[in-house]
TrEMBL record:
It comes from Dialister micraerophilus UPII 345-E. It is an enzyme of class 2 (transferase). InterPro entries: LpxK, P-loop_NTPase. This is Tetraacyldisaccharide 4'-kinase. Belongs to the LpxK family. ATP binds at T61, A62, G63, G64, T65, G66, K67, T68.
Length: 365
């Protein structure tokens, strides 16, 4: 069992052993230190407002909640409305994270996934006419974007980045684990206390199809007890098509792949949710190889996945769009023959949610 899997098992354990209780006590102490650090940091924040609208998309828990599909969808909508859009991302684990850089100017992609990070690079490929900037200092990125003509800014993973004032504060909550085991990091997965949800003006519950309606109602009630005025939308991640990871690949309809045996390979925040989505696409899952979030793949990882696929009699290997960005060069360089596909998903809203989010954005456009 990996360290990450053990950690998640530990903090979610309902009946921990004596040894685990000791570890959890230590984590609780670290949780208090973490809370003190973020509290002191928040006191020192000097907020900056720029002269174009800013929409923040973030979460309150560590791990995958579905921010990237949401950013892509918002970018597409705003672009269709004639706005020049820029996405501001930290560029986590990219070589340009500290110094900052332009991933795309809306015409040309300048940085790869190692330089920009996997998610900004994916956004740049999915939104070729939207500018994408990376860097820890999102104020500098915002100023650069505005100088280059951007009319509206999407702040990726922006809920905790309080320095940049925003006009809209969207928070995504993963329905499969909405409140991060009720504890701050590292005792749980909360990045901030739940009371901070008071700052949100729109909350989107993601992956609602993976839990019961009763559970969704419980989550909504809990949110409204914290923020009674917030709008809550329900969404799911719907599989839409496949891409084989090779040059000049074309979209492959779900029905063509239905019933195929697959080994999953990913380095994302919520691999269990990816497996459920893959099953919804019609695949028969033989094995789920889950690496840590933002994992840097090497050829040996593909070799091992191919071996697992052969052992289990799988027809294909399937990964996420985000991981496909990192895997493509390795696959092409090493001329991997075993068929490897990415499963492409889209965010779908329930109960006229798409109309509601468009109305929510109207005053900015």
């Amino acid at each position: 069992m990996s360290k990450e899997k053990y950690f998640l098992k530990l903090i979610s354990e309902e009946n921990p052993s004596i040894a685990e209780k000791c570890i959890l006590k230590g984590l609780s102490l670290l949780e208090k230190i973490y809370f003190k650090i973020i509290s002191e940091k928040n006191k020192k924040i000097k907020k900056v407002r720029v002269n174009v609208p800013v929409i923040s998309v973030g979460n309150i828990t560590a791990g995958g909640t579905g921010k990237t599909p949401c950013i892509i969808q918002l970018g597409e909508y705003l672009q269709k409305k004639g706005k020049r859009v820029a996405v501001l991302s930290r560029g986590y684990r990219g070589t340009y994270e500290k110094q900052g850089g332009t991933v795309s100017d809306g015409k040309t992609i300048f940085l790869n996934e190692k330089e920009a990070g996997d998610e900004p690079c994916m956004i740049a490929h999915k939104l070729p006419e939207v500018s994408v900037y990376v860097g820890k200092n999102r104020i500098k990125s915002a100023q650069k974007a505005i100088k280059n003509g951007s009319e509206i800014l999407l702040l990726d993973d922006g809920f905790q980045y309080k320095t940049l004032e925003r006009d809209k504060n969207i928070v995504l909550i993963d329905s499969t684990n909405p409140f991060g085991y009720e504890h701050l990091l590292p005792r749980g997965l909360l990045r901030e206390p739940l009371d901070e949800l008071k700052r949100a003006d729109l909350i989107i519950l993601t992956k609602v199809n993976q839990v019961s309606k009763e559970r969704i109602n419980e989550v909504k009630a809990r949110i409204l007890s914290i923020n009674s005025s917030v709008t809550i939308l329900e969404s799911l991640h719907k599989p839409v098509y496949f891409f084989e990871i090779k040059e000049n690949a074309k979209k492959i309809p779900l029905e063509v792949m239905k019933g195929k045996k697959a080994v999953l390979l990913s380095g994302i925040g919520n691999p269990a949710a990816f497996e459920k989505t893959a099953k919804e696409s019609g695949l028969e899952i033989c094995k789920n190889i889950a690496k840590k979030d933002h994992f840097s793949f090497a050829y040996i990882d593909i070799e091992k996945a191919v071996n697992e696929a052969k052992i289990h009699g799988a027809d294909i290997i399937v990964t996420t769009e985000k991981d496909a960005i990192k895997l493509k060069d390795i696959i092409m360089k090493n001329d991997v023959k075993f068929p490897i596909y990415s499963l492409c998903i889209e965010m779908k809203y329930l109960e006229k949610g798409e109309e509601k989010i468009q109305k929510y954005l109207e005053e900015l456009i």
